[in-house]
């Protein structure tokens, strides 16, 4: 979409691409959302979460509405970049980068899910590394945060492997029930020690032109 250059931002690794979440890509990814392939056991998302909606068509509608709202919000206090994870030409998940008072603090956080039939192959690790490369290398972030329920073994392992440090715990609800979250913190220095040279950023100049980074 040439009229909105943020939708041309792309990140490439040897295993996958993160492509800006255009409506065309979201429409393809909606197949997995409608089929319930975003779910996992134990439940990975805190409330409120559109992906917990039991009706498949309403689940897709609420998921799209949330992305459309977030995609259009570009403010100094909060902005979001939504990416569709593409493997061998097929959309298989979502990866989001969220700026949190970025112009003042330089901090980001992330959110992601991977279709159930593509888990267990290291793609979650790869997509997190890709979006962190955009944050630190492309946007000049100072720090990245993440959180996951204490029983979300996969997400906690990714954070640990990528050099995040434990940053306390907090309570949240999932499906209306209280559950404990691990909080994680990744400094720029820690990322620099593990940074890769095989991740490519494309059209990042759009972020500098249209996001409130400074």
UniProtKB/TrEMBL annotation:
GO molecular function: protein N-terminal-serine acetyltransferase activity; protein-N-terminal-alanine acetyltransferase activity
Domain named N-acetyltransferase: residues: 31-187
UniProt keywords, alphabetically: Transferase
Transferase among keywords: yes
GO cellular component: cytoplasm
Signal peptide: none
Pfam family, one: Acetyltransf_3
The organism's place on the tree of life at top rank: Bacteria
Protein name: GCN5-related N-acetyltransferase
Annotated organism of origin: Nostocoides japonicum T1-X7
